[in-house]
């Protein structure tokens, strides 16, 4: 179940029934019950998961707690006409006062949209460098102090140019492009069908952060279809400022500047890693894959999650690490209930650059497990719900080869959830549970991962300015940067 909270943010979790009140909304004549929970009566589980934190990001402690997640779809392929829903009223929930307000409009006609947001990926090898540029030009990916943000695009151009050859090799090895768009389209279609089966017809849109179809394209289609209520759902189970947070920032900017969008009721689902349907679907896949081993009880379950720089957690308050660890705990608890008591471990993959990332690192842990005598290992890509380069190439090829070289004899890998029916059905339930909380989007600018210099002492401020100026001068004069800039301008 998803709790309805203020600012149109729906946060899925288990709720204390003693603190809830029931409200009903009619979809096509069918009554559906929803539970609204007072913020003064939250259960300990809610407090532990910090899922109720939603205030605008105005300091490092709250930096990520108020952020939100979403979904969108390739608008040019689908061209949905838009199904209509007749609602008995629109429900908004105020977590500050703990009261629910229901506006009666029995004749109001609503068109509900679901926006799925994802990372995106290059469709062809020619798309790799511009895709990487879009990625590294995001200030939530490459964090620069305010004084040096003028370096964001030149730095993105340099990094993308340098990394493109190796990245092209990776994409070439999995077919010449990313399958992420195709799979996300299929997930969108499956979600639409699942909601229709639950008597909630919707339009589903897909919007990617760094490649086509961009979030902006999806939002434009939402306006053209005259959607009147929107649920934004992330395809990132756990929240991070570099994924959900970045996408929320883009949406906030778009909604702030558009009169139509600024009035649209929106419910943004935050991290949903703790939903029962997701946990059970992951356990199903793991249990099934364990059966392929000769001795399933001896297999080490190896969770490999995408990493983030440590500074995101320590400086910007990113809850990603905590949520990931809790997610693994919930999955293992579900497996234990089924009689699966295998050893397990968690590591982080895909680190980039010289900065410190979340540890332990996947590649190092694989070597250590081999040295310890582990012979059978089952890799689980826990932060991904779609197959893409980090599962198909990094895990299936690079890490598999490393594991076998390190002495691990039996290797297996749990597939991504993709369109697993139980997973899609649970996402549909999350959408339905989020609808009552839809309100005009809070467009107060998020305090993203971008560092704020306002609280720094003058000496630190001057030092960073001088250091940044020197680095900028050297960077802009480097041969590779000159070549990259020339190629970008011509």
UniProtKB/TrEMBL annotation:
<comment type="similarity">
    <text>Belongs to the ferrochelatase family.</text>
</comment>
<dbReference type="GO" id="GO:0006783">
    <property type="term" value="P:heme biosynthetic process"/>
</dbReference>
<dbReference type="InterPro" id="IPR019772">
    <property type="entry name" value="Ferrochelatase_AS"/>
</dbReference>
<dbReference type="GO" id="GO:0004325">
    <property type="term" value="F:ferrochelatase activity"/>
</dbReference>
<keyword id="KW-0934">Plastid</keyword>
<protein>
    <recommendedName>
        <fullName>Ferrochelatase</fullName>
        <ecNumber>4.98.1.1</ecNumber>
    </recommendedName>
</protein>
<comment type="function">
    <text>Catalyzes the ferrous insertion into protoporphyrin IX.</text>
</comment>
<dbReference type="InterPro" id="IPR033644">
    <property type="entry name" value="Ferrochelatase_C"/>
</dbReference>
<keyword id="KW-0627">Porphyrin biosynthesis</keyword>
<keyword id="KW-0456">Lyase</keyword>
<dbReference type="InterPro" id="IPR033659">
    <property type="entry name" value="Ferrochelatase_N"/>
</dbReference>
<dbReference type="InterPro" id="IPR001015">
    <property type="entry name" value="Ferrochelatase"/>
</dbReference>
<keyword id="KW-0408">Iron</keyword>
<dbReference type="GO" id="GO:0009507">
    <property type="term" value="C:chloroplast"/>
</dbReference>
<keyword id="KW-0150">Chloroplast</keyword>
<dbReference type="GO" id="GO:0005739">
    <property type="term" value="C:mitochondrion"/>
</dbReference>
<keyword id="KW-0350">Heme biosynthesis</keyword>
<dbReference type="Pfam" id="PF00762">
    <property type="entry name" value="Ferrochelatase"/>
</dbReference>
<comment type="pathway">
    <text>Porphyrin-containing compound metabolism; protoheme biosynthesis; protoheme from protoporphyrin-IX: step 1/1.</text>
</comment>
